[in-house]
Write a structure and sequence with these properties.
Layout (H helix, E strand, L loop, with lengths): L1 E8 L20 E2 L2 E2 H10 L4 E8 L7 H11 L2 E6 L5 H8 L1 H5 L5 E6 L2 E3 L3 H11 L12 H4 L24 E3 L3 H18 L13 E2 L3 E3 L4 E2 L4 E2 L3 E3 L4 E2 L4 E3 L1 E3 L4 E2 L4 E3 L1 E3 L4 E2 L4 E3 L31 E3 L4 E2 L4 E3 L2 E2 L4 E2 L3 E2 L2 E2 L1
Parallel strand pairs: 1-4, 1-6, 4-5, 9-12, 10-13, 11-14, 12-15, 13-16, 14-17, 15-18, 16-19, 17-20, 18-21, 19-22, 20-23, 21-24, 22-25, 23-26, 24-27, 25-28
Antiparallel strand pairs: 2-3, 7-8
Length: 349
């Protein structure tokens, strides 16, 4: 028997993900049409001998109870949320709930960080674990030199002793610390759907709209046939995409409206937000540097050393209304704002 533990932190963590995490727990933010940690759960349920998934964090249990029940109904596996009395950190949370993790005497258990998006190679990790008969199997990635200065190294002193084994994988991996990283993860999950869950993607020739590349559209969303979506676009439940709209490399959340002839590029449009007619919402891609070996998402701070806003994707928080014929460029907008003029490189409080 196997188990999985998903560590999701709490409301005092993930502040760089705001304003998207102001009204929904970060682990439930939808990426490629699914809550972030549902991708973890989907990977876990592929393991036939895995009997239980434990989610550990300090979020109020009421914020996750509906999600947990929905996952149980979908996947038919035991899933429980264990709420910490206070934020205990990675080791602290596991130690606090050690008896529940070890209940039933599992042969082994997975430990997964909730803000890591990946094509989790869990089956191959089990095979490696059994072949080497080791105490611990770690899925790691190589880091750039600047990144390595901020983190440790993995047991290099064991190299050559016959106690350390390495097995390479081509699977992708990315942390989601900022909203820009969510756009990057959205792209990779959509690409993964193409090979493993093609039914989730809208076919290029479908009659619903003009599709370029990988696009997810929730069945309850309304999309005008003249809209052009893609590549790498996710449209949430009950969203409305009007005539002549162009969307690329973006996430449109539940109940949002993109009105006629507007454009959304490298952006996230929050729940219930409205982009007026002939308006433009655009951000700056923040992908890893393709010229650096092992490059990952850097997750830079909002401001550079000169106090200026670092270029990044544009974000509309919940229930933001951008008036018609306006431009929003490289800006972050907190919830419930009425925007009646153009904005560039600003945080709108």
């Amino acid at each position: 028997m196997l188990k999985a533990v998903i560590l999701i932190g709490g409301p005092l963590k993930g502040t760089r993900f705001r304003p998207l995490s102001l009204d929904i727990p970060k682990p439930l933010f939808p990426i490629a049409g699914l809550p972030m940690i549902q991708h973890h759960i989907e990977s876990c349920v592929k393991i036939k001998t895995l009997n239980e998934i434990l989610i550990i964090g300090s979020y109020n249990a009421a914020e996750l109870v509906n999600f947990v029940q929905e996952m149980i109904n979908i996947y038919g596996i035991s899933i429980r949320y264990l709420q910490e009395f206070t934020a205990l950190g990675t080791a602290g949370g596991m130690y606090h709930f050690r008896d529940q993790i070890r209940a039933g005497c599992p042969e082994a258990f997975f430990i997964m960080n909730g803000d890591v998006c990946a094509d989790f190679p869990l089956e191959s990790m089990i095979e490696s674990y059994k072949e080497t008969k080791g105490t611990l199997t770690v899925l790691a990635t190589e880091a750039t030199r600047p990144q390595s200065l901020n983190y440790g190294y993995i047991l290099t002193r064991l190299a050559g002793t016959g106690k350390l084994f390495a097995s390479e994988t081509s699977n992708w991996w990315s942390q989601v610390k900022t909203a820009g990283a969510a756009i990057y993860a959205n792209r990779h999950y959509l690409n993964l759907y193409r090979s493993k869950k093609p039914e989730r993607l809208i076919p290029v020739i479908n009659g619903v709209c003009n599709v370029l590349g990988d696009v997810y559209i929730n069945p309850s969303a309304s999309v005008d046939p003249t809209a052009v979506l893609g590549p790498n676009v996710s449209i949430g439940p009950n969203a409305k995409i009007s005539a002549g709209v162009r969307i690329r490399e973006s996430i449109v959340l539940e109940g949002a409206q993109i009105q006629a002839h507007s454009m959304v590029l490298h952006s996230i449009v929050g729940r219930g937000s409205i982009v007026g007619k002939w308006s433009r919402v655009e951000g700056t891609p923040c992908d890893p540097n393709p010229n650096k070996p092992f490059a990952k998402m850097e997750n830079p701070p909002l401001f550079n050393s000169n106090g200026k806003l670092n270029p990044s994707i544009s974000i509309l928080g919940t229930s933001v209304n951008l008036a018609a014929e306006k431009i929003l460029l490289n800006s972050i907008v907190l919830p419930h704002k009425e925007l009646t003029k153009n904005f560039k490189n600003e945080i709108i409080l």
